[in-house]
Amino acid sequence: MTSHINPAMPVAGTPTTQSVRDNFATAASEISALQVAVGAPPPSSLISTGGATTIAAGVGRAYVATSAAVTLILPPNDCVVADRTGSRSNPITVTPPAGGSINGQSSYVLVNPWQVASFFWDGTGYAVA
Asked: Is 31 in the same domain as 61?
């Protein structure tokens, strides 16, 4: 892939804001294309407080870094949920978005320290591995 980033921009002396923005936009576009080309992993999310959290669409890994009770609502894509505290005194309850299911159930609960579960989205629900 040939880069279209212009090393002469911004111009020396009095660069314009637009020339800098244009070069950053080109760089961002090329970086995104490279990530797709090499199969870069999806973004991750760190959950550090108890309560209910909806995992954003596109997030592929959710790390729970609190021993408080947590309820996670999965995004409509494959996602891995992992306990990062190792002191699981309260459960991590994982639920599908409205209308979905997890192995035919309304939720899946992680109760063991360091437990990890992979949720595979099929368009309507999830299978767990």
From this structure: no
